[in-house]
Write a structure and sequence with these properties.
Blueprint lengths: L1 H14 L12 H22 L28 H8 L6 E6 L5 E4 H6 L3 E8 L5 E8 L2 H8 L7 E10 L12 E8 H4 L4 E4 L1 E2 L2 E2 L9 E4 L11 E7 L25
Parallel strand pairs: 1-11
Antiparallel strand pairs: 1-2, 3-4, 4-8, 5-6, 5-11, 7-10, 8-9
Helix pairs in contact: 1-2, 1-5, 2-5
Bound molecules: the ligand Nc1nc2c(c(=O)[nH]1)N[C@H]1C(S)=C(S)[C@@H](COP(=O)(O)O)O[C@H]1N2 and molybdenum atom (MO).
The ligand Nc1nc2c(c(=O)[nH]1)N[C@H]1C(S)=C(S)[C@@H](COP(=O)(O)O)O[C@H]1N2 binds next to strand 5.
InterPro entries: OxRdtase_Mopterin-bd_dom, OxRdtase_Mopterin-bd_sf
Protein name: Molybdopterin-dependent oxidoreductase
Length: about 260
């Protein structure tokens, strides 16, 4: 059904594009073509699933003067600290798993891709909200460039921070790497972007530098910060305790739609 069609489109787009180390991902009409076909696939799929509604977008005047930093404020991990010291020039986003073309994207490459800017309200499960502006390429464009296999069902986001958790949040608080996952419908939603910028400036450390997910129809904990890797998978079993996210492994809902 629809997923097959969607992936068929992706395969065709990626097939026409031999990403030689992805050097020319950002260049010219090849990418424009991928983005267009991603948009077409996205529209059809969203509509079919009944989850095509956009999250409300706001104007600059609505933006919150203060946007809280929540969860990890800065990963302490030595690898992350080294990347930060080099201004993230050596950072790469890897895209692996059930893909035709595994990718390793630099921040410059991601910044050179066509970007979407959206002013949205972030809703944290802890009861606070804030309106901010986010800019970055649509996740769909990156997935189309990687070319997903038909078995693909979920996108897993692996982060740089080891989040011990807070006792106040209840549940087992083992030390564990933050991660998240979404299904293909959210992955191809037009407002699902990999944000390199917030409020017109490069993403700060607190808000997830160098790259974080924005998945606007979902609660705050789904918006993974400090992205290192994206895995295209058919099962969430191999990650954490298998519930699809750091907080999901501690009792939160996997589908946190708003
Ligand atoms: N890697 C990582 N991503 C994360 C978190 C985290 O601790 N680590 N916290 C989540 C939660 S609960 C929220 S509300 C938002 C907070 O994003 P902000 O710090 O930009 O406000 O990030 C989410 N993504
Ligand atoms: Mo949150």
């Amino acid at each position: 059904m629809s997923r097959r069609r969607l992936i068929g489109v992706g395969g065709a787009a990626a097939g026409g594009l031999l990403l030689a180390g992805c050097d020319n991902l950002a260049s010219d009409d090849k990418l424009a073509r991928i983005v267009r076909s991603a948009e077409d696939a996205s529209r059809g799929f969203q509509r079919f699933a009944g989850r095509d509604a956009l999250a409300r977008e706001f104007s600059r005047a609505d933006m919150s003067p203060v946007f809280k930093v929540n969860g990890t404020r800065e990963p302490v991990d030595a690898d992350y600290q080294a990347l930060k010291a080099g201004n993230f020039a050596d950072w790469r986003l890897t895209v692996n798993g059930l893909v035709a073309n595994p990718l390793s994207l630099s921040l410059a490459q991601l910044r050179a891709m066509p970007a979407r800017t959206q002013i949205t309200r972030h809703d944290c499960v802890e009861g606070w909200s804030a309106i901010g502006e986010w800019t970055g390429p649509q996740l769909a464009s990156v997935l189309m460039a990687a070319g997903m296999q038909t078995r693909a069902r979920y996108i897993v986001f692996r982060c740089a921070d080891d989040y011990g958790g807070e006792v106040s949040k209840g549940g087992p608080q083992s030390t564990a790497r933050y991660y998240e996952s979404i299904d293909m419908i959210d992955a191809f939603h037009p407002q699902t972007i990999l944000a390199t910028m917030m409020n017109g400036a490069p993403l700060s450390i607190g808000h997830g530098a160098p790259l974080r997910l924005r998945v606007e129809r979902q609660l705050g904990y789904k918006h993974a910060k400090y992205l290192m890797a994206i895995d295209v998978v058919d099962s969430l079993a191999g990650y954490g305790s298998g519930h699809g996210g750091y907080w999901e492994d501690r009792g939160y809902e996997w589908y946190a739609g708003i």
